Amino acid sequence: MATALGGRDRAVIGPSAAFLAGTIHTRAGTKRADRANGMKAGTLVSTVAPASRNTPAGLDRFLRFFADVRAGEGATALLLGLNVFLILMAYYVLKPVREALILGEGTAAGKTYLSVVEVFLLALAVPLYGRLVRRLDRRLLINSVTGFFVVCLLAFYGLGHAGARLGIAFFLWISIFNMMIVAQFWSFANDVYTKDEGERLFPIIGFGASLGAVVGSGLAGGFIERIGVLELMLVGAGLLVVEVLVTNYVDARERRRGRRAPTRTEMSAAPPARGGAFGLVFKTRYLLLIAFMLMLHNTVKTTGEYILGDTVRHDAIERLPPGDEPGVKRTIGAFYSSFYTWVNVVGLVLQLFVVSRIVRYLGVPGAILVLPLVSLGAYGIIAVAPLLGAVFPAKVGENSTDYSLNNTVRNMLFLPCTPEQKYSAKQAIDSFFVRLGDVGAAGVVFVGLTFLRLGPGGFAVANALLVFLWLVLAWRIGRAYRDLSASGRPPVTSASESGH
Are 257 and 11 in contact (CB under 8 A)? Predict the structure, then answer.
């Protein structure tokens, strides 16, 4: 009996079955073939499809050097990679605008404390986003949120040319923009792919994010000199417009391939948890574990950036004559230029050649443990030898692993989730809880300096202790992910606590 095979079915069957599928015709298919060849209907013809959809195209074969790409998957993976490439490129084009505005207006002293304000603003923005998730379908949600950010950029551009002081406002806006727009993209990618597909293809998409950061930061400097600071806002807005067009194309393409997006009814099928997006996180054990892990991870990461900055500053002061403040600034600037170059290059290599292989051989539960183990080694080295020669390679290893492997795997954790969990709860976790980690790091640094008089080595020991807790959380999340994968069910939100 002839059977019509869908695209996803063709990716599962073996080569022999695919060959047979290409030679079997339904009655309607045979009649169409007969008519095309000028033959009488019903004449038996045996043909082989010249380009079966399960036959790897050149693009798919090329991408197999970097990830486990199967027939017909390469185009969507590259389009999603282009999507996040444009998002990260826009952010890194706008990032120098943020620094120029806030430092140019003389508000550098208060810059450190703005993370607290960001947390309060996110506490207001995340519930609003959660309401949009329940009221809009996927495409309209993404278009509305991205359109809002584009309009904001145009408004900032107009206000800037009108002479308004934008430093603090733009600093807070771009921090929220970065957290929300990136989280929204990964929610979309989680929605497009099944769990198994995401585990195989997210490494390719993550390369787009890494490359976007490198290209955006490289272009920003030249753009500022040629067109000016405020005009970069228009460049960022243009990149976002192109990005949302790519998103719409991917969405339409997947619908044509029979991969239906969740409807508005399905996005809000479950009764809302008390407290909206935050209630969904607090009443779902799996999501709450992820929230605490990412918060702790960001505390460790931000404290590590303080260790690096303090070590670089003291090393520069010791190397140069007393009072040579311009020389100290040049030395620090040169160091960070070299540091970020190394982080970006190593991160790109890891993303392209290592990430997919680690996920394939260790699985998501094993891969989520890699960064805390790298961090534990890094801060162990710094605790023993708190010198720049030791801090530099330790932080390059930690940051490059974070921006490549960990950034990819942490987004895989949402693959087993429901649509609302992927959009609403993920937004709360990736923005609010991550920013809480920055506040936690500020607390660690304040206590360490004010009461414990810690130096870089002492802060490294404190970070190593936090990493042990991070490892425990990562291990528990890995077990929960494995259980969810085996059951084929999404994380459960406690009914008794969600308004039932």
Answer: no
| CA 377/CA 304 separation, integer angstroms | 13
Q: What are 302-351's pLDDT values in tens digits?
A: 999 999 988 988 888 898 888 777 788 788 878 887 888 899 889 999 99
Start-end of H helices in 195-284: 195-227, 231-256, 264-267, 276-282
Identify whether the C-beta of residue 41 lies closer than 8 Å to the C-beta of residue 35.
yes
Task: Tell which phi-psi region holds residue 2, choosing left (phi > 0), alpha (psi between -120 and 50) or beta.
Answer: beta
Q: What is the CB-side half-sphere exposure of residue 349 using CA atoms within 13 A?
A: 8
- In this structure, which amino acid lies at residue 84? V
Give the helix, strand, coil percentages of the chain, each rounded to 5: 80, 0, 20
Structure tokens, 152: 């904001």
Domains of the chain: 7-55 (no CATH), 72-268 (1.20.1250), 270-500 (1.20.1250.20)
φ, ψ at 6 (rounded to 5°): -80, 170
Q: Round the CA-based radius of gyration of the chain to a whole number and report it.
A: 25
Per-residue pLDDT tens digits for 104-143 = 665 444 565 677 888 899 999 999 999 999 899 999 999 9
Residue range 38-57: mean pLDDT, rounded:
41
Average pLDDT of the chain is 84
| Secondary structure class of 470 (helix, strand, coil) | helix
Distance, CA of 324 to CA of 329 (rounded, Å): 9
